[in-house]
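hey so i finaly got around to running the thing on Fluoride-specific ion channel FluC from Actinacidiphila rubida. pasting the sequence first so u can double check i didnt mess up the copy paste, my clipboard has been acting weird all day
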Amino acid sequence: MPDSPAQTVGDPLHPRALPEQRPRRHPGQGAVVAVVALGGAIGACARYGIALGWPTAPDAFPWTTLVVNAVGCAVIGVFMVVITDVWAAQRLVRPFFGTGVLGGFTTFSTYTTDVQRLADGGHPRTALAYLALTVVAALASVWAAAAATRRVVAWRQK
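ok and heres what it spat out for the 3d tokens, dont ask me to read them lol
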């Protein structure tokens, strides 16, 4: 028995679905996915190396994660100013470095795990302080780095 039009409504994968019902394909995204994956591997390896070199004791304040996240946010502040105000970057630079490297380097998943570890370990005040301090440090870092980079760019253009 042939499909009725009602059977294709709402089924975007049906062979007779209307074009506007079908999922969109994004040709050329393979390169973007590849550079994000490569950058993410590089960033995650860098973060892992830092964590090995500067380990955090189980009940200690997680300074390593805080510093990594603040530094990563500062670098993204510089990077975004450079690629938007100074340099017309090739289309794969931003996904490679911004999403990949810096996304892999910063570790907000570890940040939330650290907060839970501190709270579960009987250190709720430290957990709350770390929770707030990380957000403030991340926002302040990206803002200060972007502002400083804009000043340097303006100074160099004089």
